[in-house]
Design brief:
Structural class: mainly alpha
Number of helices: 8
Largest sheet: none
Helix content: over 70%
Distance between the termini: 11 Å
Strand content: under 5%
Number of domains: 1
Number of strands: 0
Length: 194
């Protein structure tokens, strides 16, 4: 049953990511990097999710001088395949053109990302490489989660800008509000899953 909710959470998370990408209002710094790489280098957004996850798993392993957390690859593969699936389905269904429909798409994406992430995280099934990196940076720099996460957001934002990823007002909204939305859904889903 735990694996079912793990996959459900990732499917919802990636659906939300796809909504924010389709909204064309801006995505999270990490997703903006993936889209920028896809547009300018080639391959799909989901393929870049897997490639970046592999790089991060190797980097995390070197930083903490331990074996790579291979289980994180399971999450990366499911996430990458799911993003590509949702983007393909959404492109053939409806692409928002009007400002109002873009805002609706973005709003749906923001909420669904929070819900999917909360469900996924509450299963404690496999680590997300970027979350693991956040904890490693926190430990190495002896700071807090907020500062280490902000550093990672800034790093991905700069790379996304270099690759002309979709950075916009949505990027700022995601950075400001995704934590609040996630916190709201974490408590709710934890009660339901337990």
């Amino acid at each position: 049953m735990n694996f079912f909710f793990y996959v459900l959470g990732i499917l919802l998370l990636t659906l939300g990511i796809s909504f924010t990408i389709q909204s064309d209002l801006g995505t999270s710094p990490f997703d903006a990097l993936l889209v920028g790489l896809s547009i300018n280098v080639g391959l799909t957004v989901g393929s870049w999710e897997i490639i970046i996850a592999l790089i991060m798993i190797a980097s995390n392993s070197l930083l903490i001088k331990q074996k790579p957390e291979v289980l994180g690859l399971v999450t990366a593969f499911i996430t990458g395949i799911s993003i590509d699936m949702w983007l393909f389905l959404m492109a053939n269904f409806f692409t928002p053109d009007l400002w109002f429909s873009k805002v609706v798409y973005f709003g749906i994406g923001l909420v669904v990302i929070g819900l999917g992430t909360a469900i996924y995280l509450n299963t404690n099934f496999a680590p997300i490489p970027v979350d693991r990196l956040t904890l490693i940076i926190k430990e190495l720099t002896r700071t807090n989660i907020f500062l280490s996460r902000s550093f990672i957001h800034l790093m991905f934002l700069l790379m996304a800008m270099y690759f002309s990823g979709p950075i916009g007002i949505g990027t700022l909204l995601i950075v400001c509000f995704s934590g609040l939305i996630l916190n709201y859904f974490m408590d709710m889903t934890q009660k339901r899953l337990n």
